[in-house]
Write a structure and sequence with these properties.
2 copies of one chain form a homodimer.
Chain A (H helix, E strand, L loop, with lengths): L11 H19 L4 E2 L1 H5 L6 H9 L11 E2 H12 L5 E6 L3 H7 L9 E8 L8 E2 L2 E5 L3 H7 L4 E4 L3 H13 L4 E4 L12 E4 L2 H12 L10
Parallel strand pairs in A: 3-4, 3-7, 4-6, 7-8, 8-9
Antiparallel strand pairs in A: 1-2, 5-6
Helix pairs in contact in A: 1-4
The structure holds a DNA duplex.
DNA sequence: ACGTGTGAACCGATTCACAGCA
DNA sequence: TGCTGTGAATCGGTTCACACGT
């Protein structure tokens, strides 16, 4: 049934790397560099040239053999692939310390993203304006998100509220969530969730800090 | 030469997951649950029971066959593996908006981590106390880090300074860095670097937001 | 009887190596 | 000639399925 060809599955990681290439291409562009080889563009990325070429090959041939890649052209192609050519509005839920920091974070602009709506259920925060965005009541969240047809959200509420809020976002039409709560969200599969979990990242760094005994197993 | 046995390589991801298990175990402990099966502990984690057991198996047998795992005992074992049993002091470099947010972030405590030193090269910030930590001059960084024998750092400086600062941290004895700058750090291999790159994470989420044409390649 | 612990099978992603084209 | 584009080989991690211990 409909098994087209399983071969064209694109590694999730390949997409992640496209973002990195895009960032680097913009830097190169600012330095007035016009043409790069896969060797040059990956020099400072700890990614192999072959990996770079393979990643691009999932989407088409973008280079000139014997020459390299046109910086401007490739920039455009990758933006088209990622879908970041036009500005995309996001919603933020949770305007605590983390949420406020996200409102002030300029890095999203790099991928043409901006926070257009912000919500909090704490009445004392509602009405305040942080970095140009007015905090609104969570009660109005579903309505406003639907109204503005927003499909991506940043979830920065306390862990105990995350699952419930995630559900509400899903029902409001949100299709992609960057989740900052240290909880695994259980949501309908059409909603894409990426977790940002600094604490656990640190946890695993601590492991690597230890000089391990040569250790085969535990004894 | 010296090929002991390549089989005991522990997947990097397995370590990451240990942090998740640990968090969940603490939750279970608070709910007074004493014994769990691999099935139960992974129920809300989107990790399979087999994966859980495999991950633990790299370090030893910690469960009772036919029964399950003792919550308290396993908690202790994982903390021992990760090396988070005792409080570990970290340094923060860069006390801008992001750095300030990190100083106020309580999540690190979960893994027994705390920020003990904070630095910034902006004279107007030096001397200020944020969340109980005094910002000090980057000029004193190497000396203070060495003095207090700190080995882990959070790097939250602007992108153009990241590489240089990373080097300085390495020379000061830092062996693990959580890097928030959108740059790939080139450091001696004994320094472990983990990148936290929200912007690029969002970039790849945007891709998944798009309803793709059935598309086999590009044309 | 039941759930762990684990070698073996499987699967997906990375790397290799070279054919293809400018 | 030089660097891209890509099947084929390889590698590493996940899943399976069952033997083992309690």
């Amino acid at each position: 049934m409909g098994r087209k060809k399983n071969t064209d599955a694109i590694p999730h990681e390949a997409i992640r790397r496209l973002s990195l290439y895009l960032r680097d291409l913009k830097r190169l562009s600012q330095e007035k560099i016009r043409i790069v080889s896969s060797e040059e563009i990956t020099r400072f990325l700890s990614i192999s040239p072959a990996q770079f070429r393979k990643d691009l090959s999932y989407f088409g041939p973008f280079g000139k053999r014997g020459v390299g890649y046109d910086v401007e052209k490739l920039t455009g192609e990758i933006e088209k692939i990622l879908g970041t050519e036009k500005l995309l509005a996001m919603a933020l839920v949770g305007a605590g310390k983390l949420g406020a920091a996200l409102l002030g974070y300029a890095g999203f602009l790099e991928f043409n993203l901006k926070i257009a709506l912000a919500f909090d259920n704490d009445a004392s925060k509602v009405g305040r304006v942080i970095h140009g965005v007015r905090i609104q009541s969570t009660g109005d969240m579903a309505r406003l998100i639907r109204q503005r047809k927003i499909r991506m959200a940043l979830l920065a509420v306390p862990a105990p509220n995350a699952q419930k809020t995630g559900h509400e976002l899903a029902r409001s039409g949100i299709r992609a969530i960057l989740n900052f709560a240290p909880v695994n969200l259980n949501l309908p599969q059409e909603v894409h969730v990426t977790n940002v979990d600094m604490a656990s990242e640190m946890g695993s760094l601590v492991y690597r800090l230890h000089p391990r005994p040569v250790s085969s197993k535990k004894r």
